[in-house]
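User: Run a structure prediction on this.
Assistant: Running it now.
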Amino acid sequence: MTASPWRPAEPLILASGSRTRRDLLASAGLPVEAVPAEIDERAVEAEAGGLPPAALALHLARAKARDVAARHPGRVVVGADQVLECNGAVLHKPADRAAAAGHLARLQGRTHALHSAVALVRGDDEDGFVETARLTMRPLDAGQIEAYLGLAGAAVTTSVGAYQLEALGIHLFARIEGDHSTILGLPLLPLLARLRAMGLLTF
């Protein structure tokens, strides 16, 4: 990267192994170092004691950012998490194809929310926010779900909704409301605004 608006000498740390999130930051000209958080997300969720879905997403994002920041003192760390909410229930990444089919059967013909949370940690300073996108999946019968799963392959187990909107998953939807980067799991515009407010960007 030859030109960047990033002021600090050291790259921004992304507390995630997500290639999609890393690519979003890199596309905005930010140098990024990926350092996945070492936390048990389901244990953190259980300890949170039944938070509403949006608050849960922020709680998880903060846990990730704090974990990585503790190992990299003084660095700017971004943690992110995404929670899918359908009719008040939270869906997690499906464990296998059968679970993915169950997710899609539950989501088809309904509107669900994707709560994408970001936490920023630099030393003792913390900030965080949540952006929400709403997606309406078109009605799908069992045959259509199986056809999609067959084409999408193992990728269906890598996201909470069993779909990648930037790939074949786009065929599943009738309506989408929300910023694209929010749907991908890292709301870029509000994140850049906060980095700018922290004096970390040149413009």
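The CA atoms of residues 7 and 199 lie 8 Å apart.
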